[in-house]
Structures
1.
Amino acid sequence: MAALAASRRLLHLRPDLEFCLRSRALTPFRAKGAGGVQHAPPHRRLVSFRQGSSNEGNAYAAKNNAMQSPNEQFLQLSLEEGEGDGTVSGISESILQDVKKSAIELLAIRAYTVSELRKKLCGKNYSVDTVDSVIADFKSRGLLNDGYYAESFSRSRWQSSTWGPRRIKQALRQKGVPEAEVDQATRSVFQDVQGDEEQTTHGFSKASMDHLFAQASKQWQRGGSLPLEKRRARIVRWLQYRGFNWAVTNSIIRKLEAQHPP
């Protein structure tokens, strides 16, 4: 450990070197003379080495970042300049790096909202101030964005499970997404008007209503052997369970009965 600390200090004393830390899962190892299993420190690999002016280094780093995919960004952390055992805004740098590593490992598995990630990190007994500092850093880098998360979640649930706006909004609120982001995401998905001449019906674009009708038609035809009233009640439950209001539900049922008469 002493050699590792000395190496870190040496690297920090050279601000003209650019390097980054790739996240690695901790692997157990048995230390000589010790009876228990300890965790090895994360493996560090020098991925870029460049000497020259700070402007040249910044341009090189910007070019590398532009070529990275979002997942690759999640798997890298830039080491801040300064002493390895110093502090950043009153927070120990070593602890700050530990929190960043934990956040990177979580985000590499799946996307999180800001609220979800904060709860996960605080659940690891990190201080609130340290967690908030990391959250703010990740938001500034674009690694956390509730607006993008909300739209992606809404579109996925709509296309794969035919969830309506009401159910999607409820799920996003439970994930801690702000109300403004929730409303914007559902409008983007369900009112995605492609032309000025295309109007929305009950808050849905024509494409969205066509998609919903196609999915409802499958359910309607599966109940072909049922009496009309039970068949209609079955579709009402199917639509309302997925979060569609009565106006949309009634419109779909009337269209089903017109195009698929009993």
Note: Residues 2-27+39-143 form one domain.
2.
Amino acid sequence: MAACMASKMAVAPSRGALARKVSVKAARRTAIRVRAFAPAYDEVFDGNTGQMEKVLSQSVESVSAGGLEWSYRVGVPEEGTEAKPTKVLMVHGAGLNSFTYNKLSRELQKMGYTTFAPDMPGHGATSKPTSGFDYSAASYQSALEAFMTAAGIADVEDPVDMVVSGFITSQAALLLAAANPGLFRRVIVMNTPLGPGHKLPDPLAVYTRPFGMGKGAQADVYKLAYFGNEFAIPEETMAKYEAPYAGGDGEAARAALEATVTKNDLKALTSAVSKAWSVRGLPKVRIVWGVNDKYLGDKDMYKWAEDVRATFDCIRSVGHMPQEDFPQEAAKFVGAYLESELKVSALGSVRLGKVTKDDDYQR
């Protein structure tokens, strides 16, 4: 049964070059020019000065794509910062929303990158359909491609870099990159299930349990985000994560999260991702991993890196959400990879050895 499910989750790369050529031609026909965005700022109280200070942030935009209304965050470098030519697509995991990349995006913007972080369907402020979208990995995969086209970043002449983290929706994004490699330049995986040893955390796994523990259960986003981390998440940040489940769309958001978990067998999904990425000719992959993750052990990560020829960075002091715990450290690793020459010797990856210290990019 799992094998059957896995086969439906991805466009099989074994059908190879022909599928990619069709995808590339379609992207050329449908890609549109990216709208010009201006730098955005948040006003934050500075306890040292007693003044409100402007802090680089992202604007919240909207677009119609694939029959859905999408909300997404766009981060633009500050004026005077030289813009990098490659844009960065950032895909969150199930139960969270695009705000999870707020801090990491800011650090990348300082380096000159323009970032796009959508609320995936059923999450954040994006549509939460009750029909026509079944919340399977295949549906998320197709929807994300439609979003990229509508947002103007599905262009084989200007492929994007992609960052993924978390559960299920992020794996759907990895399947999209494997099926349409021409749209992506490089891929970064941050604490995402990658093997059979990785399990759903209790706040998500509850939906698969019998005897009334699952269906209809309240979405505990606090536990999902907080308990996987080594460090506490500030109350004002948690409010951003919990808002979609507490507002007027709360019932629809909870139903969408339940559907996302019940429609996707995690073992079958990780198997599909591993199979899709086991072929050559795909974008290069770098794993940036918080090894204190309470949900995901690093054993499967090492095995996946070996199987798909990915390189990786390990950060000892970081838990399930590197983008939340230490965004500056995570951005250092992400930025160095995006600008690297892709030589393993230059990247300095720990190669399946015991992690005794953080990987070091001061070289």
Note: The two ends are 48 Å apart (CA to CA).
